Amino acid sequence: MNVCAAGLRVLVTAGAAGIGRAIASTFADAGASVFVCDVDAHALSDIRASYPRIGATTTDVSAPEQVDSLFELAVSHLGGLDVLVNNAGISGPTARVEEISVAQWERTIAVDLNSMFFCTRRAVPLLKAAGGGSIINLSSIAGRLGFPLRTPYSAAKWGVVGLSKSLAMELGPSNIRVNAILPGVGEGERVDRVISAKAEALGVGVEEFRERFVSTISLRRMVSAQDIADMALFLATPSGRSISGQALSVCGDHGMIA
Questions:
Q1: Quick one: pLDDT at residue 237?
Q2: Which CATH superfamily is domain 9-186+224-250 in?
Q3: In this predicted structure, what is the pLDDT of residue 256?
């Protein structure tokens, strides 16, 4: 199986920590040239120290003017583009729909969905100039299942799947493959915060809700950031050359979200 990324020029949004960092470092270790952006200056400093060859800059990808600056810096560093990984996302509010403010809704959609449009519209001319490439959009199992008390997040992640499938059809003739990865419940601080918030909203203990959270997963465990990074590498390298327009769950077979 050929998952060598040598020669690939890769941009990863929100690439300094969590899943994004795992994706960026996995591509770099496989031989790719990598550029990342993030809003977390501390995380950016840390990835620069750990991976001096990875280019990095501060960017809020929900702001189109900042995305324009990002692409100027990324192209200057990489010399072009072969792979875009739209990873940026936020959890959004955990609340009943009547308690969610318009500002909370709009911010979640802006980061989790609008940012992918802003980045993709800048990436496509570069991918066409390269003779083709790959766009990988991070959705969620909330993009194929309902997610009570998390309606802005789920709506955005369903939107990511529709965006990905439509782009795959549109860009396929230009040899650009587009796929969505749907991570399941992931290990880490972000999901710990979600579990705590939902436990509080439902009036149950954190550990009780954590057990409920994994009880609907066939493998009875959360996924790791590396699980997601390995799928991204597969999709972007020659082994994934015929895969496009897919919403690929990496979730341990998650049947429903509590």
A1: 98
A2: NAD(P)-binding Rossmann-like Domain (3.40.50.720)
A3: 67
> pLDDT value at position 213?
80
Rounded to 5 degrees, φ, ψ at 71 are -70, -35
Q: Which residues pair with 85 in a beta bridge?
A: 12, 136
Question: Residue-wise over 145-168: b if at least 16 C-beta within 10 A, else e?
Answer: bebebbbbbbbbbbbbbebbbebb
Rg of the Cα atoms in the chain: 18
Query: What is the residue-wise DSSP string for 123-155?
Result: HHHHHHHTT-EEEEEE--GGGTS--TT-HHHHH
Total residues belonging to the chain? 258
CA 255 – CA 258 distance, rounded (Å) = 10
Determine which one of 71, 153, 209, 213 is catalytic: 153
Model confidence, pTM: 0.92
Pairing of strands 247-250, 33-38: unpaired
In the chain, which stretches have pLDDT less than 70?
A: 256-258
Query: Are 43 and 16 spatial neighbours (Cβ–Cβ below 8 Å)?
Result: yes
Helices vs strands, H then E, count in the chain? 9, 7
In the numeric block, which tokens belong to residue 141?
């199992």
**10 Å Cβ neighbour count for 30?**
18
pLDDT digits (tens, 9 = 90+) for 37-96: 999 999 999 999 999 999 999 999 999 999 999 999 999 999 999 999 999 999 999 999
Which has the closest alpha carbon to 138: 194, 179, 79?
179
Q: At 183, list the tokens.
A: 């991570």
Known catalytic residue: 153? Answer: yes
* Domain spans of the chain, in order of start: 9-186+224-250
